[in-house]
Amino acid sequence: MASVPAISIRGVVKRFGALTAVDGLDLEVPAGICFGLLGPNGAGKSTTMRMLTAQALADEGEIHVLGHEVPGDSKAARLRMGVCPQQDNLDVELTVRQTLEVFCRLYRVPRGERAEAIDRSLRIARLTDRADAKVTDLSGGMRRRLLIGRALVHQPDLVLLDEPTVGLDPQVRQELWTLIDGLRSEGVTVLMSTHYIEEAERLADIVGVMAAGKVVALGTPDELVRAHAGQEVVEVYGPPAHLAEIDATAAANGWQTRRSGPAVAILRAEALNGELPEGVRRAATLEDAFVMLTGEEIE
In terms of CB atoms within 10 Å, which of 112, 118, 121, 273 comes out highest? Predict the structure, then answer.
């Protein structure tokens, strides 16, 4: 018998007045993987996350989380999931330990197990030495780690991470990637929304690319690259007039291209040997596939 998926979304629509934020979304997340929901701002990622926790209610369609129907059985689902929101909503007047104590109570961790649960979350978030510090005294990276530790205090089966590293510098982002990768290795299902290409490529077993409220492509990072960008890219550099000529030549020959900073990137170069202008050859990336799928440059 097949295992129940951690998340099942069928035909979900969410409107905000005249705006359709999620438009007939179908999505299934198997248990025990890291699933990356990748897309530009406005693609519907955060709205999808809010519907999974019943903070927003779908206008149409069906949502099941860990076998529980949402929103009808959302309380039972929430007890088995942890949520790290995009916006920092920590109480700055509490200490790190007090923050975790509050969430132990909210998630009904038995009284006799709370101390151990708090110590475990402190270790996961690498905040043991800051346990008695007030939240207001933490750095931005420490606060993000605390948000994740707070989401894990009750040892959930599913963790929702909405843009977990948004606004952080590269060093802190690397720290959080290590933390998230550790969750996956322990068998926790992770659904992570992000608009950072490298984040999805590094952490996700499966990536769903969202655009205009729908998943427009689904697969492993390697599968998406091969299907939508090929194996190799040639980047041609030069002044604007030269790049305009390259664009015109590419259009005349039916080559797939994208702008890549101060260059024109010609995709699927492995099939065009002998025909391409001189340039820098490199392996195709998930960013190439993303731009071809969404028409958006990543931020």
Answer: 121
> DSSP secondary structure string, 12-63?
EEEEETTEEEEEEEEEEE-TTSEEEEE--TTSSHHHHHHHHTTSS--SEEEE
Containing structural domain, residue 266: 230-283
- Report pLDDT digits (tens) over 208-218: 999 999 999 99
Is 134 contained in some domain? yes
Cα–Cα distance, 27 to 153 (Å, whole number):
27
Cβ neighbors of 275 (< 8 A, separation 6 or more) are 253
d(CA 204, CA 180) in angstroms, rounded, equals 10
Give the tens place of pLDDT for each residue, 178-223. 888 888 888 899 999 988 899 999 999 999 999 999 999 999 999 9
- Contact 233/267 with Cβ under 8 angstroms? yes
Structure tokens belonging to residue 293: 């799928």
For residue 284 the two structure tokens come to 């195709």
Adjacent-strand bridge partners of 38: 194, 209
